[in-house]
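Notes on consecutive records. When two proteins share a document, each keeps its own sequence and its own token line. Never mix them. Below: protein one.
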Amino acid sequence: MRIFVTGATGFIGRAVIAELKKHNHDVIGLARTDASGAMLRAMKVTSLIGQGRDVQLLTDALEGVHAIVHLANTLPTDDTTTEDTWKFSGEVMVKMMENLLRSSERTGVKTVVFPSFYGIYGDYGDVFVTEEAPVLPVPSVQRFWEAEQLLLRSSFLRRSSGVILRLGLVYSHDSPDTRGLLYALKRGQASIEGDGAIYWPMIHVDDVAQAVRLALEQAPHGETYNICDNEPVLQSNLYMNLAQTIEGPIPESSDDAQLMPYMGRINLEPLSFSVRLTNAKARDELGFDPQHKNHRSGFEGIIEKWLEGQND
């Protein structure tokens, strides 16, 4: 398939592109800076320079394309090669979704995959959360919900075949948030919130890429899937395990813990929610099989690379 990817030079986008190329798919990436365009060309990916605002430009780019992956949710703040440090912008995410859907309707591109965010569920305590659970999006994640609704409406009207992937907390060796968390834990600067009884659904970036590819290849019309590993982890256990592995101090508890090292570009309120996400539907229907079943497996290689960098 020929696939158009927005957010192509973010750390998730880079992993998705690698996964798609590995399975012999052709990729066009939206580059919103000249430096990002150069990076895509170095990755042997066709690049489209633009901001995603010009519907005609998008329409022209979608000629001959079979599917779209919409990952862009940041606003360029400099001419860097990657989107990892750009400012989060829900407005960019929603407006670009509108433009992509308008362009896809003109060209007949049906499959649109949108990786959303688990934070729209709100707080569910220790109850397992399936895709059927009502969502309670707070203002900081409202835009994810709006983008989902645009895609679901388009699917309902048979203008597109949308697939929504509600991602857990994505971690990667080249994510600034992941590196920031490890740095903070190593120096005793990351505190556990209260008693730490907050379930966080974790997902390695390579497993996100697998889920995106499966959604593209199978294109289940109008479906929503939770994408996380098999074992949601308590924040206290995550911090304790990571701190022990990198030989940092035991994380302290605090009623006003600052969670800045993780997902720092998105308002932090959703990180105080306990969401015990289950990926059963994705496993059953998509054949999703995360390589990293839990955070311990996923962070092993990441910590190894991070420690090597600290010793350089």
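Protein two starts on the next line and is unrelated to protein one.
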Amino acid sequence: MTAARRGRPSDADRSHRAGPLLRAKILAAGLLTSPAVGAVVGAATRNRIRSHGVRFDVTDAVFTPRQRAALFWRLYETAEIGMIHRYVGPAGTVVELGASLGITGAHIASRLAPGSRLVCVEAHPELAAGLRRRLEPHTAHLTLDVAALAITDRPGPVLFDLGATTLGSRLRDPTTAAAPTITAAPTITAHAAAGISAVPAVGGPVAVPGTTLRHLLAERRIDAFDLVSDIEGAEASFLLGDPGALDGCRRAVLELHDTVFAGRRVTADDLLAAARRLDFRILRRRGAVVALTRDPA
């Protein structure tokens, strides 16, 4: 007897229903995180928002009303934060690539024992500028190291496209651009202060200092570490370009992205397959976010 005859939905039925359900969830999330709701949340909480057990000061101009609302409703990086709390720490060194606003870094810090070490790396010039200040309230019990760097496949300056928001900002494929010259980082504009976008576009790419994961670890004398990474496809630089850089990595929480590496298009599934070839096994996967370990099963 088929599933449909037993009264259970078939795969086709579930697929048909998932479309409207997904659209409804997206619509609801959009309403809950609208600028108007974000403004109300900011005023009601005095910009002190508790999310997933950690309280954040979101008065910094890089936080948009949408991001304040997303934090309040626990819609900001939910999968990544959940896996951090479940799989990262509690002792040792954690390296975070793509630290952004510092929200995930604060959650990592909440998992770490006194005396541990947290290394946070961010390429976006404006986000990197205030990252230490946003993290310090959460990291008094550990050693905090903040680096304004892009992770790429070779040391040196790289082009970084500033999107309309921080979520739209990413490295350019180095095979499509000549080596750039470092320019001054843009300053926070009135648009950011008004919350129109986390960091407004500034008319094109900027050049930022870049390094490889291997160089980052060597310069900071890091041997064993856990890794948290959300760098919009630049994870290909070590998963495909230098897998040996992960030799000391015990556990990882990665957000994987379709990208272009060495002139070739690669998918998130390609990157996950590369991680599995390095003897990582999957602990959990939720969409683009995956938790990996080399610990015995």
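For the record: Confidence is low (pLDDT under 50) at residues 1-12, 177-203.
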